[in-house]
Write a structure and sequence with these properties.
The complex is a heterodimer.
Chain A: H1 3-28, H2 38-41, H3 53-67, H4 74-87, E1 95-97, H5 99-109, E2 121-125, E3 135-140, H6 145-148, E4 156-160, E5 163-164, H7 170-177, E6 184-191, E7 196-203, E8 212-216, E9 229-233, H8 240-253, E10 259-262, E11 268-270, H9 271-278, E12 286-292, E13 298-301, E14 314-318, H10 325-335, E15 340-343, E16 351-357, E17 363-372, E18 386-387, E19 393-395, E20 402-403, H11 418-436, H12 438-454, E21 466-468
Parallel strand pairs in A: 9-10, 10-14, 14-15, 15-20
Antiparallel strand pairs in A: 1-17, 2-3, 4-5, 4-6, 6-7, 8-9, 11-21, 12-13, 12-17, 16-17, 18-19
Helix pairs in contact in A: 3-4, 9-10
Chain B: H1 2-35, E1 58-59, E2 62-63, H2 64-78, H3 87-100, E3 107-109, H4 111-120, E4 124-125, E5 130-134, E6 137-138, E7 143-144, E8 147-152, H5 157-161, E9 168-172, E10 175-177, H6 180-194, H7 200-215, E11 217-218, H8 220-229, E12 234-241, E13 244-251, E14 255-256, E15 260-262, E16 267-269, H9 276-284, E17 289-293, H10 302-309, E18 316-322, E19 330-334, E20 343-347, H11 355-367, E21 370-372, E22 381-387, E23 393-402
Parallel strand pairs in B: 10-11, 16-17, 17-20, 20-21
Antiparallel strand pairs in B: 1-2, 3-23, 4-14, 5-8, 6-7, 9-10, 9-12, 12-13, 15-16, 18-19, 18-23, 22-23
The chains are: A alpha+beta, B alpha+beta.
Amino acid sequence: MRRATRIAIGIGILSSAFVLGFGWPDLAHGGLPRLGLIPAAVGLAGDGDDLHPTRAFADALANIDAFFYGTSDRQEMTHEAIQGMLRTLGDAYTELWKPEDARRFLERNRGQFVGSAGIGAELRSDPIRGPVVRVRIVRVFKDSPADESGVRANDRIVKVNGDDVVGRELLEIVDQIRGEAGTRVELTLYREATGETFTKIITRRMVQIQDVYGEIVMGAYLEGLPPIGRLHVRSFSETVPAQFDEELAALEAQGIRGLVIDMRGNPGGIMSSAVDLCARFVDGKLITTVKGRRGSPERYRARSGVARPHSYPIVILVDRYSASAAEIFAGAMQDYEAATIVGERTYGKAAVQKVEKLPDGALVKFTIARYYLPRGTGPLDSIERVEDAQGKQIGGGIQPDIVLDPEELMPSSEDPDPFLRRAVEVILEKIGESLRQEERAAAANSERDALVARLFLDSFPTGPYICNAVSRSAGPAA
Amino acid sequence: MAGTNRSFWVVAVLVLVVAGLAAGYGLRARYESNRGVGMPSSLFAVRTGSDQAGADIFIGDGTAAEYFDRVLRLLQEEFVDPIDDEAPLARGALRSLFQWLRDPGTRYYNPDEWSAYLNVYEGKFSGIGADVTVLRGGTEERIYLPLTVVSVADGGPAAEAGLKAGDIIEGIDGRWVASWYLLDEWDDANLRLGRGEITAEELEQIRSGIQDRVERMSPLSDALEALVRESAGEVLLRINRDGEQSEIAVERRPHSVEPVEETAEGIRIRSFGSGAAQRLRAALEGKDEVTLDLRGNPGGSLETVERCLSLLIPAGEYARVQREPGEKPAPLRLEEGTDRRLRIKVMVDRGTAREAELFVAALRDRGGAEIVGGRTFGLGLKVERFALSDGGGYTITSGRFYDLEGRSLFEDRAEPDAEGEPQ
């Protein structure tokens, strides 16, 4: 080899290694080396006219601190500046929650209370006026202290620990009812149905917030007809699949002939909960594809082996507030024809957020990926909401198989829940069909059972993903 | 021999690879760490004072800068869409940060707004040809931020249309200018419904009363943009002049005035921009009696004001500045002055504002000047101006001006709290 060739090879090796070294942080994230940064790194090109957000912020804060006439709150200003920075990204789901809001969010999403225990009931303040006590118990969680003490839904709260709470703020009352596990709270309640006022002493403990409620659909129009079950899934916390199994088993024990899974008002929650719920009905199939900024798309499949063989038709009831994880569930069930979707076009939230905790307890929530339903993975296949200038939805979301118009279906005393009535009617039509096809269905079921045994594949990963942003959340719990 | 030779090459190649990797990675690591906190300040300040970059301001366990930087890095690394340009993030952060203080002299300006802001003091106007600012009124609980005309440029479109100092601009082209007051009114009504103090019907009444304004509301920054930046077309303004509402159409076009000019009536000082002192010196040459016309003067730099004063009054204390609420005002002094005894007459009006008010008070208290005209605007705030590297900037109120008699040159439009604040 000639000397020149050797030097050239040497330089080649050195520079390749340099590029590899410099671009390593990008390669490690699955991107290409950003060689354009080299001039800035060696100081040939400074940041120029660029304004670096942190430096600009820190300078401004220091200047305000040094000069401002009057008082200022650094923590508030820092939160405010971060919120201003996040708003420029133009993403509706990227936001900062100040410590107080953050604490409430965490309580809801874990499906239990953090730091304080309660009696296991959900409260609501009714928008009515007059001598009526406005705060009432909407739900009593199963096997909770409140449940065991005989507190029932619709009981109105008159006193807490002998203290008259009529006219107080809802959250204030909630805070009073909550406390450390093991301590006692005395509630004075008014029960409208019987007209009595009574006092209960309840021992607080950590309670599981119940997100899934099962019931046999009641109503005048169902008299003499076979039992139909309804599972109301209010949001997707971590424990939803387990709660769902328990509630569904109870309904099946009553011999239901059809099932309404009610996703109305469900704002989403933990994505893995929705994927896992799908596994009850579609075995081992692709449920959603999540595409982030770096790396290859992640495919989330339903677990195999937990599908419930069933012979009854399923209707998923949705409305304009069903969003995110609820849309993943409904959309995948629709794509695999595992259920009929009935209701309104859903919200259309196809973004996945990550939540990071900040040192003072605030949370920053930001979009890290978008998800796609099994039907498509292209950018145009996203169900992301499209709005007109007035904020009215004109696209995105999941289009139900049977679309209902809330303007036409107004609730009345004879027909308190027209959406549910329509869902039940759809099931009744289907039972008529499946009665004729019962033999065929039975054959198909046994075939699938065999498949379940063969595909013993558990490819379901769990991640820290949370998709929950629609502002319509459930009431506070105590 | 061949064996030795081969191992030499293997070692050489390895050394090159390791050296290259180390150099590349090391450079990148240094670059990344320098991008965060701790780099020299990018801010060249019109006035500097602190470039420790908030190092001693703490939140949680770290500094506010570290706290902020942590969020920024999360976005840089993981936000779904790559962030190629960080400057808009910085501008958004500054905009919110300064807005939070809700103070009439404290504000962030993006590069376009900043040049428009500075140009006003040089006599160069865009938009409607007026100095428009956001004041603070209402109460502590219910803040009202009226968009207010401070002064109107001579011969400009706003002057032609009859706009006057003190006019509050409530609407622009059929949209209402955002006011915190409206949003607070709505939140307040909801709270009262929650407490059972009003009925749902009453809430509905309140809603329909303010609905139109809430729904067709344009943010303050958009409103300012439409008034002081856009330089073509006409705008229809909904004006509130001392409680009387009216509509005025105003043209938008670039407009210039001479900051200091000799007129038949005397010397017109339109603003305290960069060349004002020199021009005033020339205009005062050989005079022992002078009329200074400061009508519609929106202020300018304190340095220029002092240089102008030193041509007219003796050195020494000429006014005071209060640096914190409740504090005793500290003296403002002129290093140089004149012993020449001039007979001074000063013309003012409602459009005489900010540093111009300080100038007038000093002439009255130290130069025995006779003041002609009504009340001045009452915006005598000491304001620090900071320029940013991208061409934007911000102002921070650092005090309130007082005259030598101890009267405030700032009229607080915000009503005190129920308990009352010390004045």
